[in-house]
Write a structure and sequence with these properties.
Structural class: alpha+beta
Largest sheet: 3 strands, antiparallel
Order of helices and strands: EEEEEEHHHHHH
Shape: elongated
Number of strands: 6
Number of domains: 2
Number of helices: 6
CATH class of the largest domain: Mainly Alpha
């Protein structure tokens, strides 16, 4: 048995936890196996270990209480609800006024950007916490979220390409000011990205807590 200690800064916050750990070269991360905290006060931490390796003391805050997590959950749902409402109003406005106010391609790009964000947020609100249901359903939700939010980024890219073409690449307007080009870029580009990711790491689509990409093995 090996004992060692470490003087620390004052740790008077009740929400702070300290952990005696060692670096596990096999897993590539910190581990508490064979290491225990034997003594702790405001200025000193003592650990004991059954083996020799690289040791450290990690300091972290405790997770929030159930009331705090519930409050954050309500805030998230309310924020998403407001965003979905505004996006639906945007889509409705574009459809009603597309022949009166808006330019054709610009109108088309705005519409699809709003649509991709709306689909993503609706899926998020309705399925992000469906991890307690079937693994297949959770994986489907994660795939839809991955695709719709990637599509939203791609439609933002389309916005930039449209503006670049309008003001700088005037000679190429015939190619870039084409709804087929933007459709392929906005809705088509995310398809191979999601397909390759899901094919290579499908087991990491969904976790025990949420229906989103897992942080294991660099999936996200």
């Amino acid at each position: 048995m090996v004992c060692f200690g470490k003087e620390t800064m004052e740790l008077r916050r009740e929400s702070l936890n300290t952990f005696c750990v060692f670096w596990d070269f096999e897993t590539g991360g910190w581990s508490t196996e064979g290491v225990a905290t034997t003594q702790r006060n405001e200025n000193f931490i003592q650990c004991s270990s059954s083996h020799l390796t690289s040791f450290a003391v990690l300091v972290g805050s405790e997770s929030g209480s159930e009331n705090e997590e519930e409050a954050l959950s309500y805030i998230s749902y309310i924020g998403c609800g407001i965003s979905i409402t505004c996006l639906i109003l945007t889509i409705t406005t574009i459809l009603l006024l597309k022949n009166k106010v808006f330019d054709g391609i610009q109108d088309f790009v705005h519409f699809n950007l709003s649509l991709s964000l709306t689909l993503g947020l609706i899926t998020f609100v309705s399925g992000i916490e469906a991890a307690n249901n079937t693994d297949v359903g959770c994986a489907i939700v994660a795939v839809i979220l991955h695709y719709t939010f990637l599509a939203a980024f791609c439609w933002m890219l389309c916005e930039g390409a449209f503006l670049l073409t309008r003001f700088y690449l005037v000679l190429y307007e015939g190619f870039f000011l084409n709804w087929k080009f933007y459709t392929a870029l906005g809705w088509g580009l995310p398809v191979p990205v999601v397909a390759i990711s899901f094919g290579a790491a499908h087991r990491y689509y969904g976790s025990d807590q949420t229906c989103w990409l897992s942080e294991d093995d660099g999936t996200i």
